[in-house]
């Protein structure tokens, strides 16, 4: 996982909010039966849900060879001010 923060965009466009993403770098989540893991925000889940479902069903090879490991995907949440990237991969 990797986090970014764009303070210039936040200053220009975002209304102040009390609670933003509180995920920590290196944090891991495990999805069982393609369900949203506890502690993962709804926005991040919606960005990755279809990829998780495909991987859980044994699929992969997204976009014809996009990832070196065809049973993985690199997905980012849709927060344009502080995007978080997630590596999705199957585990045995």
List keywords for this structure.
92 residues, 2 helices, alpha+beta, three-stranded antiparallel sheet, 3 strands
Report on this model:
This protein has helices at 7-13, 42-56; strands at 2-3, 72-76, 84-89. It is α+β, with helices and mostly antiparallel strands and 92 residues long. The model has no long low-confidence stretch (mean pLDDT 92). It is built from two helices and three strands; from the N terminus they run βααββ. The longest helix is centred in the middle third of the chain and has 15 residues, at 42-56. The chain has one domain (2-89). The protein has a three-stranded antiparallel sheet, covered by helices on one side. A hairpin with a 7-residue loop joins β2 and β3.
Quick rundown:
24% of the residues lie in helices and 14% in strands.
Please tell me what the overall shape is.
elongated
| Total discrete domains | 1
| Residue fraction in strands | 5-15%
- Cα distance spanning the termini: 20 Å
Question: Can you list the strand order of the major beta sheet?
Answer: 1-3-2
Low-confidence stretches: none
Number of helices: 2
**What is the alpha-carbon Rg in Å?**
15 Å
Give the helices and strands, then pairings.
Elements lengths: L1 E2 L3 H7 L28 H15 L15 E5 L7 E6 L3
Antiparallel strand pairs: 1-3, 2-3
């Amino acid at each position: 996982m990797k986090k970014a923060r764009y303070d210039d965009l936040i200053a220009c466009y975002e209304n102040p909010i009390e609670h933003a993403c509180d995920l920590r770098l290196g944090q891991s989540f495990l999805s069982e039966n393609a369900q949203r893991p506890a502690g993962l925000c709804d926005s991040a889940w919606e960005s990755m849900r279809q990829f998780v479902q495909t991987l859980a069903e044994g699929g992969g090879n997204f976009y014809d060879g996009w990832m070196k490991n065809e049973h993985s995907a690199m997905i980012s949440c849709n927060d344009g001010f502080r995007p978080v990237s997630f590596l999705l991969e199957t585990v045995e």
